[in-house]
Write a structure and sequence with these properties.
The complex is a heterodimer of chains A (289) and B (235). Chain A has a two-stranded antiparallel sheet. Chain A has one domain. Chain A is built from 11 helices and 2 strands. Chain A is an all-alpha fold. Chain B has 235 residues and is of the alpha/beta class. Chain B has 10 helices and 10 strands. Chain B has a 6-stranded mixed β-sheet, with helices on both faces. Chain B has a 4-stranded antiparallel β-sheet with strand order 2-1-4-5, with helices on one face. The chains are: A mainly alpha (289), B alpha/beta (235). Chains A and B meet through helix 6 and helix 7 of A and helix 2 and helix 3 of B.
């Protein structure tokens, strides 16, 4: 059992980080699909979600309530930024738009530093209990929360984009903006919601991992980079692809850390990206275009 | 029904349309003829609010609708079947139709009724309901584009080159369908390069050349005037 229990341990820690990468990647894909724009500020919603929840809890707000408030706060922030900044320069070159998202990223990071300082925050696990032992691996219950919430969010996204009028309209905008406008769909409005949903999902990632990860104002960078890699491997516009790629990245990282060395984990992940981009530039899971 | 007065419009600083006057009366099929790049699509896009007019007015039932947003134009009853169809290929036929009704909220039952009314015109769409629109044939996609526009229950439909890329036999069918729409009381403004096909159904024509109306007349007049046919329409 001895050797194998390690492999299980790595598997679960891989699924945990992988879920987070998958969520960030999905939040990027949602914005990308509607606006053809990679939103480099997405990692900051991860930080704001987590830190805002931590602050609320430290002020005595119950955990579920803090989760919900922080979720809606982030959603509002995402929509507001789209309305305030992105919409004004809509129609200018894609380069300008990307630089704007980088500017938003830096500004939000600065804002987080002003609000929360350099300290790291952690919140209590969603269910407080001893780690359980499964096949010789010791598991935090939070792992199940993370996996469960990820699955729930993905189902919700599926439902939204398949069954609701607004979700269909957003897909229509992504695929054919001209056709969509002629149906009376406002492309601006779709982009607004994409930003709001994207921010909310980023915040969910930050909040669910917060009990396992000390979060501070700089914590958004790595998840953002990894989410972006997952998105690229998944083919930029595929939700399914980026989820699979995100989980894969998490697993590769975790096994590399466990079996080789933590020094190599980032190098291997980036090598993976280079290989995918060289061999299949459109991503592993891209069926369209 | 629809009155266009002294309309000028274009892309950025490039003026494509210059001082256009067009009238569409209730229950008419009016056709705009002209070569590629004459400004026909530009006109339809300006009416639909996709492009901004530089000057002039668009009047619909005594309302000035110049430079209103596309959402507004669809809602008040002007549908647009765009050039190249512009259907949503990744979505199913049903989802495409549902989006055709995005502009005005309806109950589920009413949505079904609207779809049935589309199927009475295009029965093939009913068979393809849950298929991805991108897998339809060219003719079926054109039917879907028309059906999608019908979902908003328009009083006026703008058609941009509905025959483009279709086999002659399908073109005839589409033209018959457009004729049926007229019988259902919809007024139609159609842009077409396939002159023979469209003269079969149109009541009046405008010939547009480099952004200006050069000839205006009934189908009968056009058919009887050899000079016009030769010099402007290349027939």
């Amino acid at each position: 059992m001895g050797e194998y229990s390690h492999l299980f341990q790595f598997f679960f820690s891989g699924i945990t980080t992988g879920s987070i990468y998958a969520l960030i990647a999905v939040s990027l894909v949602i914005v990308y699909r509607v606006s053809q724009l990679i939103c480099f500020s997405q990692g900051e919603f991860f930080v704001f979600g987590a830190l805002f929840m931590a602050t609320l809890i430290s002020k005595g707000v119950s955990l579920p309530l803090a989760f919900v408030i922080s979720l809606f706060g982030s959603m509002a922030m995402g929509g507001f930024l789209q309305w305030l900044l992105i919409r004004r320069i809509q129609g200018s070159s894609i380069g300008n738009l990307i630089v704007m998202t980088i500017a938003i990223f830096l500004a939000l990071r600065g804002l987080a530093l002003i609000i929360w300082g350099r300290e790291s925050y952690v919140v209590r696990p969603f269910t407080e209990s001893q780690p359980i032992t499964f096949m010789g691996a010791s598991l935090q219950l939070q792992v199940f929360w993370i996996a469960g919430i990820t699955v729930f969010v993905l189902l919700l996204i599926w439902f939204f984009f398949e069954k609701t009028m607004l979700g269909l309209a957003m897909r229509a905008c992504a695929e054919n903006p001209l056709g969509a406008s002629l149906m009376g769909i406002s492309v601006n409005r779709a982009a607004f919601f994409a930003w709001a949903w994207g921010a909310a999902i980023g915040a969910i990632a930050g909040m669910t991992i917060c009990p396992l990860l000390f979060t501070q104002y700089t914590s958004g960078v790595m998840p953002m980079v990894k989410g972006f890699i997952a998105m690229s491997i998944g083919g930029l516009s595929s939700i399914m692809g980026s989820v699979i790629a995100g989980l894969m990245l998490g697993l590769v990282e975790s096994y590399t850390i466990g079996l080789i060395s933590s020094k190599f984990s980032d190098a291997i992940v980036f090598t993976l990206l280079i290989l995918v981009l060289l061999i299949r530039p459109s991503g592993l899971f891209n069926s369209q275009r | 029904m629809l009155q266009i007065e002294g309309l000028s419009s274009g892309y950025g600083r490039i003026r494509v349309l210059k001082d256009i006057d067009i009238t569409l009366r209730k229950g008419e099929i009016v056709c705009l003829l002209g070569a590629n790049g004459a400004g026909k699509s530009t006109l339809l896009r300006t009416i639909s609010g996709i492009l901004k007019a530089d000057s002039g007015r668009v009047i619909f039932k005594e309302m000035d609708i110049t430079n209103k947003r596309p959402e507004y134009i669809v809602r008040i009853g002007i549908g647009h079947v765009p050039e190249g169809r512009q259907i949503f290929g990744e979505l199913t036929v049903r989802q495409n139709l549902i989006l055709g009704r995005y502009c005005k909220k309806v109950e589920k039952k009413e949505m079904e009724r609207l779809m049935e009314s589309c199927f009475s015109l295009f029965p093939v769409l009913k068979e393809r309901l849950n298929q991805r629109a991108g897998t339809l044939s060219g003719g079926e996609q054109q039917m879907l584009a028309i059906a999608r526009a019908l979902m908003s229950e328009p009083e006026i439909l703008l058609f941009d080159e509905p025959s483009l890329g279709l086999a002659p036999i399908i073109v005839d069918k589409i033209m018959r369908n457009i004729r049926e729409l007229k019988d259902r009381g919809i007024s139609i403004l159609i842009v077409e390069q396939n002159i023979n096909a469209v003269l079969e159904i149109a009541d009046r024509e405008y010939v547009i050349e480099t952004g200006r109306i050069v000839i205006e007349g009934s189908t009968e007049m056009l058919n009887n005037n050899k000079t016009i046919k030769e010099s402007y329409l290349g027939m």
